[in-house]
Amino acid sequence: MPPYSSTPESIKNRKQQEKLLRPRMIKGRQSFIKFLPQDDLSGFHPVYLKHPDEFVPRRHRRGDMLEWGIVELDLSAKMSLLETIELRRKQDTWQAKCMYHGSLLPQVQFVNGLMERKKAKLAASRDPQRELCDYVLTIRLRDTETASCNSAIMWRRIKVSGATKINVFQDKILAPALGWTRNYHGYLFVDDSDGAQYGPNGGSYIDFLHFLKDCGHSYIDDHEYTIADILPLPNPKEPVFHYIYDLGDHWLHDIYVDAILPASESDGKVALLAGGGACPREDGQGFRNWNKFIKSLDAAKHAEIAGSMNYHDDPAVRRLGARWRFDPLAFDLAAARTRITDALASPASVPSGPKKSVMGGDPLRDGGPPGDSTPKGTHRTVIPNGAGFNPFGQYNNLKGSFRTEVVRDRRDKRASALCGCCGKPITKPKMCSACKIVYYCDQACQTAHWKEHKRKCGGRTASSARA
Fold it and tell me: For the MYND-type domain, which residue ranges apply (predicted)?
């Protein structure tokens, strides 16, 4: 049975295993982790035999603080990140002599202890006044494995309110600004000071199933915290956070805090200030291979990029077709701002039902891809894959190929809502009375946005959509 399955049989097996778990005596002290009786502790890395409160995070050889600062491998070994991940996977396989339920793995138990310690630290340092400030951030896509590298093919500078929830920032601001597809691949935010990780609660992204344990075993729910909660004082020279998009391809971005504006100078509105470089194609095998890929662009590679999830609907691709050419240095500021504007005026993504391409059958009739749930207040969209879109590598335009996603019908919860016009976190919300989905921070924003919103609004007349 899959370790994270919620079937009755899996739940029964998990409860039976919980009854067998017991702490062990290690050097005269009771262990923090509960082990199965048959386990040989000599196979575990010493870090997991400590108490999380005594753990000191360490940086990787290349200088990054990732994966909760747990460095299980020999730092003197000069291995690439992919080689490191493969070796860790082998270690995890033989370290756990018994077949643990996924959430009960000793490594997961240890990281859960680190998570509780981190949450207590965040609660103690929380300052509501910081949420009144605007943050100016620079995000750079890493193009080498060296930490603190200021050169980058793709970068964006964004102003955002400190009161913005992390998950909303990723979904409605960061991903559209960079050019990634909303709700398609998984992601993690990583604190460079201690390796603490934040991610989407209930996400069923396909890359999570295969790579989550290689990125730290578990993470904090990013819906619980705001930009102001997690980002430290300004440091434009060193990255304070990392943003990992697509845990399979591992697109690693560095986040710099350029400035924190005083509350008196902050308006809370989202602004994409500047940027450079085009976003790589989805499913492009990560930043380590991207430089090699774009150095020798030919007609086949241009077509491959044009057929990717984040480019096949681009107006220029549709207009030029086979004549379209990808420029890795190009950046369309107006188009990026439009993507953010469109995202702000739409409901938040549903991580439990991300975009997926499926072959055969009918996703509506069959209930969607395995593992996807359709919560109350949502519906599933099904779009046949059209000509030019290639979600299955060498197999193009397959009959019975669909794109499917779970989409929210209701408005976002007020605690995490942003103004559909300016992106300001909601304090005294107004909403479109026709569709009852889009929030506005004030009457001025609602009036300014009506010309754009009325084409998509569910209302029939302009008068009915006024609050």
Answer: 419-457
